[in-house]
Recover the amino acids of this structure.
């Protein structure tokens, strides 16, 4: 990657996150942290309002923007493939939105890039999630985003029923199966639940329904408990 391209990518990566560490940038750009420190300092000297410092993290100051991006042929193909998969393996709301966004992107691409993207030979036949599972997935995703507790009627692998009050943290796709990672109020521990085994999902009503992130009960905390130490630097920045 040319240095000019790397500087551009640094701004893009910092712009898209609340706080971006040098370790994350180094991993994404496949350079050393020392190189990241030097590049960020150069950008700051050129007037790019990057706030923060080495060892803490960086964020982009308000009011700064870059010209619209143009996608490469491979990037456009990746977007088409992702949208086709989302339409059958996501919840209804998320399946619709990418299709609209993709149409906007394709409309501004050069003809050659648009043709290359639309001829992408990757397809997802409409035999994905059952409608009931799709609806449950949307409920879980929206509750996790809103930080709202849920009450689950659940049937485990041995068909044993249980009722749980949980803090939904994130939905994970494993290929035909989605799971919910949550903090279980009854077990005082993290638990994973298969979405297709949820019999009923209800929002907890009243003031007790909302929750805030607490140390030891977040999605990042869960990942620290299950990921090998050498993998944490690679994945955790996406969840913090």
């Amino acid at each position: 990657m040319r240095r000019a391209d790397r500087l551009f990518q640094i701004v893009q990566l910092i712009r898209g996150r609340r706080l971006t560490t040098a370790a994350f940038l180094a991993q994404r750009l496949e350079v050393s942290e020392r190189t990241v420190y030097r590049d960020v300092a150069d950008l700051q000297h050129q007037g790019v309002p990057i706030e923060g410092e080495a060892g803490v993290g960086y964020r982009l100051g308000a009011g700064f923007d870059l010209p619209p991006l143009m996608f490469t042929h491979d990037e456009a193909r990746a977007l088409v493939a992702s949208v086709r998969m989302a339409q059958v393996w996501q919840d209804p709301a998320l399946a619709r939105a990418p299709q609209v966004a993709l149409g906007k992107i394709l409309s501004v691409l050069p003809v050659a890039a648009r043709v290359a993207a639309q001829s992408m030979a990757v397809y997802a036949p409409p035999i994905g999630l059952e409608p009931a599972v799709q609806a449950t997935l949307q409920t879980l995703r929206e509750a996790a985003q809103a930080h709202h507790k849920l009450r689950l009627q659940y049937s485990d692998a041995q068909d044993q029923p249980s009722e749980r009050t949980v803090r939904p943290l994130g939905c994970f796709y494993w290929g035909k199966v989605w799971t919910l990672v949550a903090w279980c109020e009854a077990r005082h521990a993290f638990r994973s639940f298969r979405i297709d085994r949820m019999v009923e999902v209800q929002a907890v009503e009243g003031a007790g329904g909302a929750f805030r992130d607490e140390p030891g009960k977040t999605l990042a905390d869960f990942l620290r408990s299950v990921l090998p130490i050498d993998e944490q630097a690679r994945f955790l920045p996406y969840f913090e």
Remarks:
- The two ends are 27 Å apart (CA to CA).
